[in-house]
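Q: What residues go here?
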């Protein structure tokens, strides 16, 4: 028999606060996606929010749904604008970050190409 269709309703998923002014709603995650080899979620970052620089041992893909921001890779010059309709793919193992630009929240849909969330902070002692 084929695998059943997995249905996830965003409004039924818990919202988790992140330090610094963001929230994250896991759509496919540890509790409901054991057989699915990815994690997905929606992050809402308030004006002034910036991630701590970090990396993942797998590719991360972010699509901007609302708002504006900028992303960067550690060790490279410049930033990449984040705005609705833009998708960025962050290579495995690369230290990166992003921040909100302007006075509206930045809403991103993220895909972690691994079944578990693994975050390695550049500066584990900060924040």
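A:
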């Amino acid at each position: 028999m084929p695998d059943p269709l997995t249905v996830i309703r965003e409004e039924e998923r818990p919202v988790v606060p992140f330090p610094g002014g963001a929230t994250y709603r896991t759509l496919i995650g540890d509790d409901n996606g054991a057989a699915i080899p990815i994690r997905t979620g929606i992050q809402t970052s308030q004006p002034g929010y910036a991630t701590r620089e970090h990396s993942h041992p797998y590719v991360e893909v972010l699509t901007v749904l609302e708002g504006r921001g900028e992303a960067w890779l550690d060790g490279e010059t410049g930033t990449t604008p984040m705005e609705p309709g833009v998708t960025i793919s962050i290579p495995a193992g690369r230290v990166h970050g992003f921040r909100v630009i302007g006075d509206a929240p930045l809403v991103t849909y993220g895909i972690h190409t691994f079944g578990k969330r693994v975050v390695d902070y550049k500066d584990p002692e900060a924040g």
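A: Context that may help when evaluating the design: The longest strand covers residues 22-28. The two ends are 48 Å apart (CA to CA).
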